[in-house]
Amino acid sequence: MMSSTGLLCMLASCLAACDATGDMGAASAAPVALSVEAPGVRPELAQPDDLSVLYPLATSQAAFDRGYLTPASPGLGGPLLPAVVYEQAFGPPGTLQLGGTPAAPALAGLRMVAFRLDPCFARTEAIPDAACENQLRVVFQTLRFDGTQAIATDDAVHAFYRLRRDQLAAAVQTSIALRRKHAGDQRQLGPLAPHPILVEQGLEGELAAALDQLVLHLAGAQNLSRITLITASGLGTAWNFSGVDVADGVTSRMTIPTVPAGTTTVAFFAGFSSGQLTGQPAFTPATQAAAIDDLQLLGDVHRAARASAADRQRAYDASLRIEDPALHSPNTIDCASCHLAQAVRVMVGETAFHLVASTPELRGAAGRVPAPAPEDRDVNVHMFGYKGKRASIHPRTIHEAAAVTAYVNATFLRS
Amino acid sequence: MIRASLAVAALVAGSSSPVRAQPRQDAIDRPTDTHVALVAGLWHDDVLKPGEGWHRYQFTAAETGAIAFQMRAPAAQADLWPYLLIMDATNHDRNWAGVGNRRTNLCEVIVEVEAGKRYDVIATSQQNTVLAAGQRQRTDGPYTVAALPIRLTD
User: Fold this and answer.
1) Whole-angstrom Cα distance, residue B93 to residue B108?
2) Interface touch B106/A269, C-beta < 8 Å
3) Does B44 touch chain A (CB under 8 A)?
4) Are strands B55-60 and B138-139 parallel, antiparallel or unpaired?
5) Does pLDDT of B9 surpass 50?
6) Separation of alpha carbons B17 and A347, rounded Å
């Protein structure tokens, strides 16, 4: 039976999601419309953009040069992402990874494009605060400036930093205070998107500088706990996921759930047919998850066509379950299934077979997230970052942000 | 007189252009070893360049079964056609494939592999259609290669 706290989180997440305008344009790189001031907003409570911050892409060389934190930025106890730890994990610069997959992205090209505060990382059930893993997650991507705008390469490095509960609580309060200072007490930032105030002020504005200092105050070599990679190969048709845990500056290969023991890399191959998923095999290695949580049939439209309607439906429902943070976390599902859930659900489940959720609960979860724009109906593994010039925010991230916001507002911000 | 002749010969020889050593070109029987071990299901990207037009990879089969060795060069480079040579490192049995579809520039060769055996995967991308007599094939450009486990019956 779900605890009262868990029920409160569910209700709060529903309310938070219902507040979303459903405008997918907010998840694009197009200018973000200013939110409408809503009377009765409780300014002291957290909003999703307070806790999950996506920086805009720079539109000037100066902003590109000075507006982003880098792995070398001085954080807690040392650089945000120390080169010595990075090389211990992935080898000297240029070292190919398993099977000749690409080398880890060069540190010099990485820029922090997002960060997320999480009070209870990878937990799907209500648990005592003392048992929660409080965390700051930083998303780095390789960026370049093309003369008019920053462009993100199809890669990512995620850095995870362990926090104490009091540190996270203080960070939440700081973020809320910054929003109130720069946007007033009645401003509702709207659905998760490139942070509206950062977009308005630019990367060289006061808020960006303050948020950068917040990150550097919280994170660094001292509390770095995990590094994960996304690289692209197959001439842009395959994506490779791997990672390491870090303890006291020493790295060890991260355990990836639902794949054979000892697996250090999981990958997805989309095939060479543009706009379709035809890779054979699509997922490497195949998941060992229970059928109810196995979406991988939808990774190949031809394989899905040969399967039964029941199996296709089960895989489709699995994609929705994987996108639900109340059901799955990085501790229960492999990286590739999570990052590809949107692509397989939309490109194969919905486009090829017109599938919809089979239960009211899953229909409710699916309905709270707007359908991706046509230009987003392609493989995009970036759950909170950028693909090229377009902001990318996956449904799971939207759900997570809503759940985290509700949890924070119901626990240490409760008046 | 002979000494003077030798001196003149040496002077003449020294005044001519020095012979430049030609860069050693690899070849089908002398491919460039990439030192990359392919792993089933994972794609490796590489770049061929003149002089290094034959790239060799190693693949050790973890299981007995069929492997589809695939290589693809960008379809936009329609004049460079990919070729794959799979050679059993034990008995030197060879399996060849050339590009089957010039619109996709993808080639594939399916080999029944045995668990534990090592195979050399030799990839090249060549322009062969417009060679003049004695002209060397041109190899140049990016490509991707993989060893994909497949089931021949479904």
Assistant:
1) 17
2) no
3) yes
4) unpaired
5) no
6) 64
Residue A49 identity: D
With contact defined as beta carbons under 8 Å apart, do A144 and A388 qualify? no
Q: Do the chains contact at A235 and B45, CB–CB below 8 Å?
A: yes
A362-379 pLDDT, tens digit each: 877 666 666 666 666 689
- What burial letters (b/e) apply to A101-120, b meaning 16+ CB within 10 Å? bbbbbebeebbbbbbbbbbb
pTM of the model: 0.87
Pairing between β-strand A134-145 and β-strand A156-163 as defined by DSSP bridges:
antiparallel
Q: Is A102 on the interface with B (CB under 8 A)?
A: yes
Residue position matching structure tokens 């029920």: A7
Q: Determine contact, residues A248/A277, Cβ cutoff 8 Å.
A: no
**Residue A335 to residue A292: CA distance in whole angstroms:** 17
Question: Are the C-beta atoms of residues A277 and A348 closer than 8 Å to each other?
Answer: yes
Q: What is the ipTM of this complex?
A: 0.87
Cα distances from A393 to residues A85, A88, A120, A158, A319, in angstroms, run 29, 31, 20, 15, 16
From CA A117, how far away is CA A121, in angstroms rounded?
Answer: 9
User: Is some CB atom of chain B closer than 8 A to the CB atom of A379?
Assistant: no
* Cα A391 to chain centroid, rounded: 12
B86 membership: H or E segment, kind and range: strand B81-88
The rounded distance, in Å, linking the Cα atoms of B56 and B87 is 10
Cβ <8 Å between B41 and A267: yes
Q: Do A98 and B39 touch (CB under 8 A)?
A: yes
d(CA A410, CA B11): 94
**Strand-pair category, A283-284 with A390-393:** unpaired
CA distance A159 to A161: 7
B34-79 tens-digit pLDDT: 999 999 999 999 998 877 888 999 999 999 999 999 999 887 766 6
Instruction: Show Cβ contacts of residue A335 under 8 Å, excluding neighbours closer than 6 positions.
Output: A228, A241, A242, A243, A256, A266
Distance CA A86, CA A229 (A): 11
Instruction: Name the 3-class secondary structure at B1.
Output: coil
Tell me whether A263 touches chain B (CB under 8 Å): no
Lowest mean pLDDT among A14-23, A71-80, A198-207: A14-23
CA dist B53 and B137 (Å) reads 9
Does the beta-carbon distance from B57 to A100 stay under 8 Å? yes
Judged by a CB distance cut-off of 8 A, whether residue B14 touches chain A is: no
Pairwise CA distance, residues A394 & A320, whole Å: 12
Whole-angstrom Cα distance, residue A229 to residue A396?
Answer: 19
Spatial CA neighbour of A137 closest among A329, A294, A391: A329
Number of Cβ within 10 Å of residue A210's Cβ equals: 15
The CA distance from B124 to B133, in Å, is 21
Return phi, psi of residue A359, to 5°.
-125, 155
Residue B95, judged by CB atoms within 10 A of its CB (0-12, 13-18, 19+), counts as middle
Dihedral angle, C-alpha A279, A281, A285, A288, nearest 10 ° = 100
Task: For chain A, say whether B43 makes contact (Cβ under 8 Å).
Answer: yes
- Interface contact flag, A96 B44, Cβ < 8 Å: yes
